[in-house]
């Protein structure tokens, strides 16, 4: 069993990382959690995590957000040769898109409708896509959980993390989602191929 | 003087501890990992050695020997405490005090000293049970540490331990002491009689300390000025200060109107200014304080220690990453408590290979420690949810 430390920006990313690791049965065991509260922390500490990965493997997940492409973002953040013990993956455009890339279970659980003909990675803004689709098609009870309260500066609804993390733990199927998100597929492949150095 | 090392066996939730100390130690760990129990061993030694104190009282105050003994203790149920103390000077003296406590094997099974040893610079100057103890077992109900007639050869050690101070101010107790009935606790650890303590302090000393406190408070609570001590017409002591704000002639306010944070800070600074050489035990000093102030505390503590020209050892239990944010704090100064199934573990952060690796990779200690002190139960919940284990 490989004990691997997890570095992430938010709760939903953590849930997704744990679910992906669980796909591999007994191969991985989550070590220490490093919550970032936004990408700033990971960007600031990426070289330190890289250095630390010489002792223990790290799985780092961050969103692409507005960067032009994932490889460029990795190169900008982490110059030079990358230690194979550092699995640094980027969700394109955001981890939310990995979640709704499960086009079977997501619409079923949240009672919503959407299409992603060019794949989830092609949606411009993961959270915006999710909010618009929930607002247009999901029942009010689900909207109230997920959408930020109107007239406030909140970025997400009060039940956002709870509802989406529960979904990821119980219903999200990464085998389906990887078919509709290339960045997720590549992250899973990286973990499949990974053997500690 | 300074406690350099502590060894414990079967003490509360620690079945075994062996840890070295610096002059400033931070104790971190999840809830119920034993932070207060860890500090309590120093309070226990204080309770034995203080004026009028005794092993009997120290045990009684803690609900008897059965409440003190580690649950994991089975075959060896003896409680053992060993402290290594360094007395500085031209020729430094190294003291070791060892105490074993158990129940008497017969009779009423009362608690007794199973052994008591004092070593000075490698030479044993007390070793009990001695001939007298063997003649009269009742003598083993007391330590020599608590008896002035018996601790002559190691009085300096007894005074050092008796002077240990625990501090955990509860602002409500200072503000409304009359609302809390019942007898006062010995040593007033929660500050119920803090104002009386101020009243008993000689005027010059009190004024100079309050001035010193005000100077620091000006940085931390900028609107507060003219911090002073006064008594009302009934002779009841009060703290008062002026709050400068948009009203040019603002009236003075008394402790009742001070915020929780201000009162805790005043108490904390006062205790740091007390001219003692023995350790100060602080429990969660970050409570009620703003993050920015909490980050300043280690610097202020150092500054006050220098101001009093004493190198007073401080043990601080905390849940706050901000309190260990200061870059001068080393992994040798952080004790991590980890609860296990039967007993807790206490280790220096510098002894953990992974933490050492992260520090060498450039992480500040405050970034790391919180991840290592997150409750295992939280992680277990994730494992159950995602890995079904």
Automatic annotation (TrEMBL), chain A:
Superkingdom, natural source: Archaea
Protein name per its UniProtKB record: DUF4276 family protein
Provenance organism: Methanospirillum hungatei JF-1 (strain ATCC 27890 / DSM 864 / NBRC 100397 / JF-1)
From TrEMBL, chain B:
Domain of life: Archaea
InterPro entries (UniProt xref): ATPase_AAA_core, P-loop_NTPase, RecF-like
Pfam family, one: AAA_21
GO MF term list: ATP binding; ATP hydrolysis activity
ATPase AAA-type core domain span: 25-321
GO BP terms in the entry: DNA synthesis involved in DNA repair; double-strand break repair
PANTHER family: ATP-DEPENDENT ENDONUCLEASE, OLD FAMILY-RELATED, DNA REPLICATION AND REPAIR PROTEIN RECF
Protein name (database record): ATPase AAA-type core domain-containing protein
């Amino acid at each position: 069993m490989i004990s691997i430390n997890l570095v992430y920006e938010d709760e939903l990313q953590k849930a997704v990382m744990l679910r992906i690791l669980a796909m591999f049965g007994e191969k991985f065991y989550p070590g220490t959690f490093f919550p970032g509260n936004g990408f700033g922390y990971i960007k600031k500490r990426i070289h330190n995590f890289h250095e630390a990965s010489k002792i223990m493997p790290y799985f780092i997940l961050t969103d692409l957000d507005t960067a032009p492409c994932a490889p460029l973002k990795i190169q900008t953040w982490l110059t030079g040769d990358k230690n194979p013990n550092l699995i640094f993956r980027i969700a394109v455009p955001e981890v939310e898109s990995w979640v709704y890339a499960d086009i079977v279970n997501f619409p079923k659980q949240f009672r919503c409708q959407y299409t992603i003909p060019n794949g989830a990675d092609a949606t411009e803004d993961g959270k915006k896509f999710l909010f618009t689709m929930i607002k247009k098609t999901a029942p009010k009870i689900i909207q109230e959980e997920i959408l930020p309260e109107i007239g406030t500066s909140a970025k997400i609804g009060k039940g956002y993390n709870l509802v989406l993390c529960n979904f990821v733990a119980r219903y999200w199927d990464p085998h389906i989602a990887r078919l509709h998100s290339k960045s997720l597929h590549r992250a899973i492949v990286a973990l499949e191929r990974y053997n500690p150095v | 003087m300074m406690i350099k090392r502590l060894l414990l066996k079967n003490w509360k939730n620690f079945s075994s501890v062996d840890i070295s100390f610096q002059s400033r130690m931070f104790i971190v760990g999840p809830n119920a990992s034993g932070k207060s129990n860890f500090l309590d061993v120093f309070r226990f030694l204080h309770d034995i050695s203080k004026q009028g104190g005794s092993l009997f009282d120290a045990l009684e105050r803690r609900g008897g020997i059965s409440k003190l003994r580690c649950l994991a203790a089975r075959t060896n149920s003896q409680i053992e405490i060993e402290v290594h103390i360094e007395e500085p000077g031209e020729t430094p003296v190294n003291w070791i005090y060892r105490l074993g406590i158990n129940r008497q094997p017969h009779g009423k099974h009362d608690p007794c000293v199973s052994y008591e040893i004092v070593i000075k610079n490698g030479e044993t100057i007390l070793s009990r049970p001695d001939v007298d103890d063997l003649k009269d077992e009742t003598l083993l109900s007391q330590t020599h540490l608590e008896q002035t007639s018996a601790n002559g050869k190691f009085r300096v050690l007894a005074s050092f331990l008796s002077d240990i101070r625990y501090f955990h101010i509860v602002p409500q107790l200072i503000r409304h002491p009359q609302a809390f009935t019942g007898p006062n606790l010995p040593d007033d650890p929660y500050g119920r009689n803090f104002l009386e303590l101020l009243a008993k302090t000689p005027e010059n000393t009190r004024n100079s300390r309050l001035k010193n406190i005000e100077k620091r408070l000006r940085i931390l609570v900028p609107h507060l000025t003219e911090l002073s001590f006064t008594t009302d017409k009934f002779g009841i002591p009060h703290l008062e200060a002026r709050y400068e704000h948009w009203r040019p002639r603002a009236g003075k306010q008394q402790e009742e109107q001070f915020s929780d944070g201000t009162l805790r800070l005043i108490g904390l600074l006062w205790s740091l200014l007390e001219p003692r050489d023995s350790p100060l035990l602080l429990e969660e000093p970050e409570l009620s304080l703003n993050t920015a102030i909490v980050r300043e505390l280690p610097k202020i503590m150092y500054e006050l220690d220098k101001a009093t020209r004493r190198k007073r050892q401080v043990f601080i239990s905390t849940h706050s990453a901000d309190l260990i944010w200061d870059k001068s704090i080393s992994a040798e100064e952080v004790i991590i408590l980890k609860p296990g199934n039967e007993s807790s573990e206490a280790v220096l952060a510098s002894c953990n290979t992974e933490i050492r690796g992260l520090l060498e990779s450039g992480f500040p200690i405050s970034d790391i420690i919180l991840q290592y002190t997150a409750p295992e139960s939280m992680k277990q919940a994730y494992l159950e949810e995602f890995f079904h284990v």
